[in-house]
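Hey, can you fold this one?
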Amino acid sequence: MRIKGETIEIRHVEGGGFDPDGFPLPEEVTWETVNGCVIAPVSGLVMTEIDYRLAQEEVTVYAPTFITIKIDEEFKARGKMWQVTEIPFDHRSPFGTNRGGTEFKAKFRETI
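Sure. Predicted structure:
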């Protein structure tokens, strides 16, 4: 069996903050596309407060390569925005190869 995986788009925000005079500095937003990720549920389905439908709230993402993603960064997958909730770490590949990748947990933010 070969796992194909899904594509996610990670939103990286650099800069921001304030200069010495207290004026806000601009943020630079870039998007990184990662192909072939496996998205697995962490827990069962829960009833959402918005429309009272069953929805997946938490997932674990297995990236097929080593990527840089920080806690609280957001990414798009399956038509939803997700937020990384724990420190990402390296994993042994669930893809049937000797290569590893990055694993991280995320929670649902909003439908896009």
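The chain has one domain: 6-111. Let me know if you want another pass with a different chain boundary.
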